[in-house]
Recover the amino acids of this structure.
């Protein structure tokens, strides 16, 4: 019994993680599928998320606990990345946000007009709301 109590406390504390989305909070997820990008920072209005890396095939979710002060339509999301022999490159992606929903921005390599062997820095994005 003495071994079970600490285990139950651990499970309870782990399930109360501050990373969980609370019902009603907006969420932003960045998905990186571009082989040349390493995303280093994401910011929008009153939010700035830094000190992380999203490499090719990775993703990261951010909870926007205070919503969007100016409303959730057509918000500029600044993405700072290293890649294509450039450090701290800035790109702005426009997206909509809704309370209780997850806005997903996916960075996709755009190989239009490129051969497989050519280095490619072109990209496109998709924005989905779930």
């Amino acid at each position: 019994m003495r071994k079970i109590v600490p285990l139950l406390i651990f499970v309870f504390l782990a399930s109360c993680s501050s990373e969980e989305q609370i019902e009603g909070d907006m969420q932003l997820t960045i998905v990186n599928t571009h082989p040349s990008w390493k995303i280093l920072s994401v910011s929008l209005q009153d939010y700035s998320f830094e000190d992380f890396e999203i490499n090719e095939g990775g993703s990261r979710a951010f909870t926007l606990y205070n919503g969007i002060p100016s409303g959730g339509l057509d918000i500029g999301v600044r993405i700072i990345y290293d890649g294509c022999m450039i450090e701290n490159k800035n790109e702005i992606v426009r997206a909509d946000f809704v309370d209780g929903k997850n806005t997903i921005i996916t960075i996709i390599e755009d190989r239009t007009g490129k051969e497989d062997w050519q280095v490619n820095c072109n990209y496109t994005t998709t924005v989905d709301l779930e």
